[in-house]
Design brief:
Layout lengths: L6 E9 L2 E10 L2 E7 L8 E6 L3 E6 L13 H5 L5 H8 L2 H17 L4 E6 L2 H11 L4 E4 L8 H8 L4 E4 L7 H14 L2 E6 L7 H6 L4 E4 L5 H10 L3 E3 L1 H6 L6 H7 L3 E3 L2 E2 L7 H14 L7 H11 L14 E7 L5 H4 L5 E5 L4 E2 L1
């Protein structure tokens, strides 16, 4: 839900500076001032302000696909002939573009303008997403069966980097060539890892990824190596649970790995980062971890990765924040509230 009113809020602010006491002043649905400490005017309400939120892993083009019950992970998403990939090949371009635009609108309405999309379909697919959702951070996926530097150049003319399936789905030499090309250009390279089966983390880290996704089947040693290499792990609790998988949230916390959150496939989960954050917090608690780590996970990619590539942020020059009205500031209580999106721009004072 998007805000259209005016008010002053005092409570907590979650952003790249941490989870701290703060306030927000809103006029006609737009944030005019947000900062730490006491509100400079009398507050009308209390709550939590979520800023710098990044949906760290999405596949938005399949937002219109309805999934039959009982399908395995392999049957649904494995390239090249999983149900999702057949849908993306066969659906009209107008339908795919509509899926993307609707996903972006729903993402913005939930308070996350920036979403990092692993975009299938080569350069053509990336162009469709850029036209449909200019605010997306696009990590394209090559379609050529062999490494083609011209295809990589074409993808990167519109995308922000490359996001590939996994080392189990592709030839290692092909993956290395793609990763080398991205490294030379100082762009973002990311990869799914150990989602269905455990994969070679040493090989993955040799590719110098900006971040990895899932790690459900990873060992403690694998996670520790990510922590030591300072490679964040994006977890997708709802999507993982759908397929009977469990993200290693508590283990990653204990081993010092940075965690971020993604909603994954649009066909399974809407891009509601507050709802996904609640699932993260519940999973962390169930595993004996600290649910309060969810606050940093909401902006971790913004602060640690995307902020290093500032040209890929905010393609349309605007942003939003989420406001959760609440008197309770613990994660499990607060994230169950109904958030609203508030627009902010270059005129918003951030103190």
């Amino acid at each position: 839900m998007e805000c259209s009113g005016s008010y002053a809020l005092e409570g907590m602010v979650s952003d790249r500076r941490g989870f701290r006491p703060g306030y927000l002043i809103v006029e006609d649905g737009r944030a005019v001032e947000v900062g730490g400490g006491e509100c400079p005017v009398r507050p009308d309400r209390r709550g939590i302000v979520l800023m710098d939120t990044v949906n760290g892993h999405t596949h938005c083009a399949d937002y219109g696909l309805r999934v039959p019950p009982g399908m395995s992970l392999q049957e649904l998403v494995a390239p090249p002939d999983g149900l999702k990939h057949r849908y993306l090949r066969e659906a009209p371009d107008t339908e795919i573009s509509s899926n993307m635009s609707r996903f972006a609108r729903d993402s913005r309405a939930s308070g996350a303008v920036t979403f990092v999309d692993f975009r299938e379909g080569g350069a053509r697919g990336c162009r469709m997403l850029r036209e449909s959702a200019p605010e997306a951070v696009i990590l394209g996926r090559p379609v050529s069966p062999e490494f083609d530097p011209e295809e990589i150049d074409d993808i990167l003319s519109v995308a922000d980097g490359i996001g590939i399936s996994s080392v189990s789905d592709m030839d290692p030499g092909y993956i290395e060539a793609v990763a080398d090309a991205i490294r030379e250009r100082r762009m973002v390279f990311a990869i799914h890892v150990s989602e269905r089966v455990r994969e070679d983390i040493d090989f993955v880290l040799s590719l110098d990824p900006a971040f990895v996704v899932h790690m459900c089947e990873a060992t403690d040693s694998d996670i520790l190596k990510c922590a030591e290499a300072e490679v964040p792990i994006v977890v997708c609790p709802t999507s993982n649970r759908y397929f009977g998988k469990v993200p290693p949230i508590a283990r990653a916390e204990a081993l010092g790995a940075d965690l971020a959150i993604g909603t994954d496939n649009g066909m399974i989960r809407s891009p509601d980062m507050v709802a996904e954050a609640l699932e993260f917090a519940r999973t962390a608690e169930a595993q004996g971890g600290d649910p309060e780590t969810v606050w940093s996970a909401l902006w971790k990619l913004s602060g640690k990765i995307l902020n290093q590539h500032r040209n890929i942020l905010n393609h349309n020059g605007t942003d939003v924040l989420s406001v959760i009205p609440t008197e309770d500031f613990d994660a499990l209580s607060a994230l169950g509230g109904k958030p609203e999106a508030v627009a902010l721009d270059e005129n918003t004072k951030r103190l």
